[in-house]
Amino acid sequence: MSLQDNATAALGWATAREQELQAELAVAHQVRILVEAKMAELQHPKCENRRAQEREVPDVFVARQINSLSTELTGVRQVKCLAEWALAPQEG
Q: Exposed, middle or buried: residue 15 (CB in 10 Å: 0-12, 13-18, 19+)?
């Protein structure tokens, strides 16, 4: 495989993965909104489900997931930039 073939393959993969990660991040942000609403509901003085407050809070999990996806997306974008650079016409 030539450098151009490798760069083209890397660019195709990075573009597809970037779209997947963006979709996953969008869903994770929606989940965060739902979790925050539910946590606010559980904090209400009339709420009898105090055990839910004592368990590990799901907003921490969602925040970690968003952070992980964001980190991976940054790496994928770096690969994409490198592939684009490798495919760019070289100036004499």
A: middle
Q: Compute the half-sphere exposure of residue 88: CA atoms within 13 Å on the CB side of its CA.
A: 9
| Integer Cα distance of 49 and 43 in angstroms | 9
Tokens of residue 3, six digits: 């450098």
Kind and range of the H or E run holding 48: none
What's the pTM? 0.78
| Per-residue pLDDT tens digits for 44-58 | 666 566 555 555 567
Neighbour-count burial of 69, counting CB atoms closer than 10 A to its CB (0-12 exposed, 13-18 middle, 19+ buried): buried
Alpha-carbon gap, residue 69 to 11, rounded angstroms: 19
